[in-house]
């Protein structure tokens, strides 16, 4: 039997609407859907492992190019966009409005705004039942111009009838334009109940560019700004992702709110241009700490923030000096044991099966300041592509900035305590996080 928890409306001063009221749920826990899982509308039973790996690598390369552009000193002043979700990785499923309309949005820690396609909708499929019609919802309300939300939303300005309008632009791709509004979100819980959160600020997109497909309905930004969904529930959130290449895995989780599970070792986080930066200070291979000049980790003059932790990148991109040290160590251990496959320069691939041929292989551990660690076993360190496996860590020529991808985060509950400015890593089987 389903249980419905409706969060009542509340009246607070505009500036305080980002904080949860006493009637809010302490936490919202919902399943996440990986792009290639059997639960995804993108699932293609004809896809080979090599197909899925190649797609993941394309996504990772696109994210790297975006982060390079956004962090460039030369263009930061004029760069007011996020990464276009043309190749989504992780989806959040919820319903919007009353009566509720199902939505399938891309989860993104690299942006702040939740937006969905709305009627009337330019470049949208007008026959899709997932396009939200605000006129039909009893819980829809407009956000006026003279609010803090309108000041921080991308492209925020005053439209007709004192309505705040937005323009969420993306790197090298179409944007989403529309009205800023409030609505009720309803999430399905792991026990098949539902939990609802009212007065969530979102973008009702009437002109959403021409995306390459129409399977997803919008983007759920998990940034730290006032307009984000995490801010509505107290700013804390966590996610847990299991085996990315197991299409049957059904326990990926997103937890929102002050009741998010924030446990394990932690490290300071610095939010720069909406991205979560943490500080990598060393890498070990088994019991051996690699000999890496700490200078290669330096990102300009920042003490905190040489690595972006990202939910949209599959592989990890390491600065060249750190990557080369790890490359040499792995290659040296497997020299003469396995046949190396000639791929791109500095990409380490071998003939065989990682699960069969690397039994007892040392774990690689990323060490962050204040003692937090991410430990990568063979399932997180290597990806299998047919009869070849490759290291899921690639060299970044972007000086002083690494990107920690999802494969390195597998089977960790990664918790973001935005108010406390820390990120936590807890090694766990995601199924244990059921509410």
UniProtKB/TrEMBL annotation:
Q: Which InterPro entries match?
A: Pepsin-like_plant (IPR034161), PEPTIDASE_A1 (IPR033121), Peptidase_aspartic_dom_sf (IPR021109), Plant_Aspart_Prot_A1 (IPR051708), TAXi_C (IPR032799), TAXi_N (IPR032861)
Do you know which Gene3D superfamilies this protein is assigned to?
A: Acid Proteases
| Keywords tagged on the record | Aspartyl protease, Glycoprotein, Hydrolase, Protease
Q: Which residues form the signal peptide?
A: none
Which top-rank group of organisms is this from?
A: Eukaryota
Molecular function terms in GO for this entry? aspartic-type endopeptidase activity
Its Gene Ontology cellular component terms are: extracellular region
GO BP field: proteolysis
Q: Where is the Peptidase A1 domain?
A: 90-426
Into which family does the record put it?
Belongs to the peptidase A1 family.
What is this protein's record name? Peptidase A1 domain-containing protein
